[in-house]
Structure of DMT family transporter:
Amino acid sequence: MLRVYSLSLLCMLAFAANSYFCRWALGDQSIDAFSFSFVRLFSGAVALCIIAMLKTKVSLNLKLLRKHGSWLAATSLSVYAISFSVAYLYLDTGTGALVLFSAVQLTMLGFTWWQGVRPSYGELLGSLIAFSGFVYLVFPQLSQPDFIGFVLMTASGIAWAAYTLIGRGSKAAVLDSWANFSRAVVFAALALILMWQQIQLSTAGLIFAVLSGALASGCGYALWYSVLPHLKGQQAAVMQLSVPVLAAAAGSLMLSEDLSLRFIWASLATLGGIMLVIASSRKKDA
């Protein structure tokens, strides 16, 4: 399990990096949201194709594509990616993060309850502490959310939760991720064609989109699919609350800024809550 948790941390770091790539590309309007989503998914599919061929030593074809992944997972992935990109045109970073992760937590917790799996008191307490720490971290950045942005980011969070839940059944993480990304490119291409009048490209925007797709999304999501079968739904959900903490820490390091007292307390609460969830889950299984 130490290996699983270590790999999970790498996943969270990839997700945190992805948030920066998206912010730099879309915040500066270096690229439009639909082109960003298409390039992100396409470059992710290409990266995963190369990784899959190197790992499996077999040529990828349509037969293998039909065997792995699913259209449901691809639909969830494309809805998440496109809605996320467009939503950040209407929401600031803090509000967007709060809406996104709230939707993820509620969806995954609700699905767990629907399956008849009841989290222990320790898991519930840990989740509450972690979420409180996360809210405390982003609170200064919160503002009244735009309705369209709120709806899109909520849809993005639900779609990401669905993609995560589907991944818990993955037995070939790289091939499943490659197949899902390849199918999702179809949806992103259709969205780009429908919104062709909004196309806005620049070299910087394309570079950030490729980095987001090939590194943070392609490699990060494949790694996430490899650890999900070893995590409980509650664990997988609450771990993702560490992403804003890691992103804020990376931002402080890159800007050589001192960490604020708010960040320290928020980090302790968020990470402490996550550790409590993990410890409670292991105790329940013992």
Q: What stands out?
A: Residues 2-27 form the longest helix (26 residues). The chain has twelve helices and no strands. The mean pLDDT is 89. The CA atoms of residues 91 and 149 lie 6 Å apart.
